[in-house]
Structures are given as C-alpha cells and as structure tokens.
Amino acid sequence: MPLLTPLRLSWRRLPAAGVPVKNLGLRTVASGASSPSGASPKAFNIFDRDLKRKQKNWAARQPEPMKFDYLKEEVGSRIADRVYDIARDFHLALDVGCGRGYIAEHLNKEVVGKFFQTDIAENALKNALETEIPTVSVLADEEFLPFRENTFDLVVSSLSLHWVNDLPRALEQDTDEIQVNYPGMFELMEDLQGMGESNCAWNRKALLHRDTMLAAAAVYREMYRNEDGSVPATYQIYYMIGWKYHDSQARPAERGSATVSFGELGKINDLMSQGKKSQ
Question: Is the entire prediction scored with pTM above 0.70?
C-alpha cells in the first residue's frame, strides 16, 4: 500500500513568528484504492463532500483563479523540494487532490516519468497549470481512489486531505506554518472563498448576521493586529512523503547491527577531537 502525503490547512487565531517573504497586494506571507467498506471504523462524517466539490469547482472557474493561488503555490513548491531531496527518480506518481496541479508544475520529467493527478473538482482539472511531465487527469474523490494497491512509486498531496472525513486513515507528520498578513478579516474570508476553502462541515451555520461579522472583525483586529495595521492568519501545514523502495537506494542496516548507542552520540564531538589530536 503506497503511503500518502497528507497535508492539512487550518486557520488559527494566534500569529506565528516569521519574517515576511512575499507581498501579495497587502497580503504578506511568512513562514516559520479504497472503497466505502474499507473506511476506518472510527471515521466520522463531518464534511459535506458534495459541497466541497461545488466550492472547488466554483473557485476554479473564476476569471482570475491565480489571484488566490499564492498559498497553494507556496506549499506545492515546498513539497516539490522534498521530492527533489530523494536520491532517485519515480516512474509513476500520483497527486491526490491536485487542484490545478501545484506540485507538478515545480517538478521535471527527470524526477517523475508520468503524473496521475486526481481531484474531486472537474474544473480544477480542466484548468491545470503547465508542466513538462506527461500527466493524466482523473476525476476522483480523495476518499475513494480508483487505483489498485502498489500502483505508484510516489504519492503526494497538497492542501486537500484536510477536508477528508476518514482522518484516522491519514498519517500526519513533519509540521510547517505559513503566516499571511491580511488588511482585515473580510479579506481573509474572501481569499478562503476564492481558494475553494470555505467551510463545508455539516453543522456549519448557513448565515451569519452582518452585526456578528463586524463585531468579530473588530475583536480580531483589536486582539491580533500587527504594527502596520494588518491582521495575521496562520496556516498550519502537515507534511509526509512516502515512496517505494528501489534497488538504486541503499538498504537500511539490520536491526542490532549498530556499534554505537544513542547514549554515546553526545560524546561524538569529544571522540572526533581525540582522533584529530592522535593524527
């Protein structure tokens, strides 16, 4: 069973420390095959998947979808960097919940021979970004992928699995934070809608009164305002990447074959210094 690369995006009110690295029109970025019967016993039905498909389709068919791509571009680039760090190439790769292809555009055909890109939104697949890698677009739900086990050499995913109901089946590691500074709370909400990231939980409130929204915006600004008047939102990203073993890669040593214990690692500098003195 190939490993997945789950990434989860969550909006937290507490700002993250970091130095602004990108200005986006007053938005500043800083960083610090399954079936229904195969679902986990502890899986919850939290999200309206049909609504999420409609939200992503709406976002993908906007006149300027690139206006809201800054976060997905950034995360796609970071995932691609992690793929480049692996000392091998991949004949067949899969991007789960690819959107417009934010990972593939940062990779080349020397690393990935062929890319299958799946998404729940057909409009996202139709408006995919250019890449030099041969790609195959597949309309599929992340929860029920139409592939046999052991099909792919590499499986990645970017900002998609946070809307999946069956979270116990998704593995989560290596965390990252990206802070974006917005002019105000309403600009943040506009961008989340433009990304196709509006709330789709079944228990969401259908309508918020204008007075409630204005009050929330005022409290948010009062509590978390930056010195320049902007307000921060922190996106917490979880990374994991998995790939199949290949003969070109070194095999791990057998368990129990180590000659140095972890307790001795703290003495490594002293041992190296003694070795240099004896030479």
Answer: no
